[in-house]
Amino acid sequence: MSIIIVHRREPKILRTCLESLLNTEYNGFQVILVDNGSTDGSVEFIRRIKRDRVKIIRSEANLGFVGGNNLALKHVESEYVVLLNNDTKVEPDWLECLVEIMESDPSIGACQPKLLSLRDPRFFEYNGCAGGMLDVFGVPFCRGRVFDVIEEDRGQYDTTAEVFWAGGAAILIRRQALREAGVLDELFYAHMEEIDLCWRIRLLGYKVVCVPRSIVYHLGGATQLSEKFYLKHRNNLIMMLKNYSSPNVFRFFFGRMILDIISFVYFLTTGDSHRSFSVLKAYVWLVKNFKKVCVSRCFVQKRRKLSDKGIAKMMVKKSIAIQHYLMKRKSFEDIYGLPLSLTHYVAKRRGKESSVS
After folding, report:
1. Which of 160, 284, 314, 336 is least surrounded by Cβ atoms within 10 Å, i.e. has the fewest?
2. Which residues pair with 133 in a beta bridge?
3. How far is CA 34 from CA 45, 85, 145, in A?
């Protein structure tokens, strides 16, 4: 078992992560730490801890989260690999629970733990929560989070459930699935890369699940990127263009453009010019780099084994943006058009059952 951590700054954050990680009850894992062009003494600190469990790979330049993980993946030979953010803290049995579910079903390509906020463990953490979902317009949300509305963990999602994507803060991947799907796409640099990877894994016929018995706490936002909103928006568009078949690229990308025009006007009229022009900037980038996106798309389409019909079965067919902003549906349990019954996703059911229609 290999656990990859990409680190650039803040040794205290890394210390918290490694101290909890080295107390993991599961035996037989090695940590591969990518020193991603850090200048804060992180390497010197690591040399003083248990080196038999930590392998350091040094990159002089900052390769970003995607590039750093891909660098480490070249050194992985184990059956499973975990991508773990440096601003996490794990429970002792977190890894055992994840491996157990992977061993029980070879069709599972990736899984994630329940991700709770390290700042306030009563609440889910934004990036992954209790498993990620996606609507047909490429807009992600989670069991426990719809846009910026984050739910308190009341045990409502304590069921192991198939989801569309696993949060990149802590994701365990079957190496065979990774070999077939390819590594993280370096067009992304940071943000949404795990959703893209899970989509590609799904195109090969694998499932993605969340295992709430496994718990990881994630600080989130510890590594600040000045263009986070732009990167998320741009990468979300790249993901749709890459992974949909040609008919559905035209069908759903056009609808997504309409939603983005509405977003552009909304942010502009509410005084959030940064977000407004980030939307525009994302489309400008796509026009300038369309050839690169096409190359990445060809890579995916040549390897896919499932049609979009099979993939769409696990997508929400009704726009999450419209449901959230216009219909005021704030929590996961309020969402209509879920691909499976609400009882599949919610441990303690409340409200009406939801299904694809």
Report:
1. 284
2. 141
3. 14, 11, 30
Could you give all domains of the chain from N- to C-terminal order, each with its CATH number? 2-218 (3.90.550.10)
Reported as a single tens digit per residue, the pLDDT across 265-323 is 999 999 999 999 999 999 999 999 999 999 999 999 999 999 999 999 999 999 999 99
Global pTM reads: 0.94
- Alpha carbons 232 and 229: distance in angstroms, whole number: 5
Alpha-carbon distance values, 40 to 5, 35, 36, 141, 226 (Å): 16, 10, 11, 35, 20
**Residue type (1 letter), 29:** F
Helix (H, G, I), strand (E, B) or coil at 2: strand
pLDDT at 52: 73
The answer to whether the CB of 237 falls within 8 A of the CB of 337 is no
Q: pLDDT digits over 90-149, tens only?
A: 999 999 999 999 999 999 999 999 999 999 999 999 999 999 999 999 999 999 999 999
Q: Which residue has the tokens 């309020």?
A: 334
Instruction: Look at residues 229, 119, 98 and name the one whose alpha carbon lies nearest to residue 166.
Output: 98
Dihedral, CA of residue 275, residue 280, residue 283 and residue 288, to nearest 10: -120
* CA 82, chain centre distance (Å): 13
61, 190 in Cβ contact below 8 A? no
DSSP secondary structure string for all residues of 70-114: HHHHTT--SSEEEEE-TTEEE-TTHHHHHHHHHHH-TTEEEEEEE
